[in-house]
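pinging the channel bc i need a second pair of eyes. not urgent but kinda urgent?? the chain im working w is below, pasted from the shared doc
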Amino acid sequence: MAGDKVIISHYRHALGVPLDDRKATDDYVFNTTDALPISLHPGTPTPVPWPEEETVTSTGLITMLWSLSVSTFAVGGMIASFFGGWLGDKLGRIKALFAANSLSLVGALLMGCAKLGPSHILIIAGRSISGLYCGLISGLVPMYIGEIAPTSLRGALGTLHQLAIVTGILISQIIGLDFILGNQDLWHILLGLSAVPALLQSLLLIFCPESPRYLYIKLEEEVKAKKSLKRLRGSNDVTKDMNEMKKEKEEASSEQKVSVIQLFTNPSYRQPMIVALMLHMAQQFSGINAIFYYSTSIFQTAGLSQPVYATIGVGAINMVFTALSVFLVEKAGRRSLFLIGMSGMFFCAIFMSVGLVLLDKFAWMSYVSMSAIFLFVSFFEIGPGPIPWFMVAEFFSQGPRPTALALAAFSNWACNFIIALCFQYIADFCGPYVFFLFAGVVLAFTLFTFFKVPETKGKSFEEIAAEFRKKSGSAQRSKAHVEMEFLRATGTV
């Protein structure tokens, strides 16, 4: 995006990197004499030529700082994702969201002031703090939505979380155009605007009731829980919800605080935890971030003169199909939509690579690649995009849920970081064949989903837990049955 180029240009100005060196990083050329290094000797305000060795060193420095600016966001998300559940239990869901929003405001303030100070330091620090905010939010929001939503609307409301995210991405792509805010004069305002969603959410949280499940199960405040439920349901009759929470509380009372190790050692938690991690890994390793990170260059390779607008088109498709999944998720079911999305992405990844491989031989193959990108994003947002976030919350009861959500969010951020760090090297090695690799990964996750992931549509938390126990129990009974048959056979010999 144009905004990225402007920020890199400002890094060069802040560090005194010479103009000639700009061609070394993706042709980030800007016609401004402000970026020329000036001699520090009085009376000689003219550009000073740099030795070739210093030019090479400065190129590496700019690349390193820009990589840090991008990757520290994911690092912050990984760190904070472990504390989302703990903070939600300690402060309550609403107060925890307020605390997370304060981090967003601090991060936005640092980035908004980047033009006034050492831009690279302020942006890296601001991105790190913003990453901490996003890491907390990625656990707290699905947790809160999952606990307040009625069973019949849990999937649709969970998908709205993803819809808000993709809408924000599209808005940022549009206002980041060079003739709006992505230019030398206004780029710092673009970065500072990240505070707006946090401010808006903080204002709306004033009108949001605390999670009734948190109040009843965690704090044992039945009166407050009923009051919260009545506000949420818009009805005085909340008997059904209270009965469901009482059953969950009875199970939770027999559960001790669940640690990360127990999620993998306790047979009741192991299978849903593995499924939860695999769903998040499928989301990130599907190749979707590779497309978002490098869609502009892909469109450029396909021959578009203005690839940035095609990237914005991808963002628009992203939003439209996420909105569509809001209406589909309670009708088609979570598992079905996830399988449809992954299957569609598998074929799109193949067509994308075929289009890029044959682009030199057939010019019309560029349209195949571009169509595959748009369809890939569409299938992603139908299922694999929104579903893992709220489906994990459906797998676990109140006791293990915060820890499970924290671990799943950490897995998501870690996979995001790995893709951001490694994709360019993989792409350089594989060339246009890189999306064949993603097709293989998507196929593996599709098969796993088909055989291991249960449907959670319309089921209570207890019913979902029983479904996992049934799967685990059936495997044990099958093993026992085989052993008995073997003993009978040996006994008759």
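so DSSP finds 21 helices and no strands in the chain. and The CA atoms of residues 322 and 381 lie 5 Å apart. — does that match what u expected or am i reading it wrong
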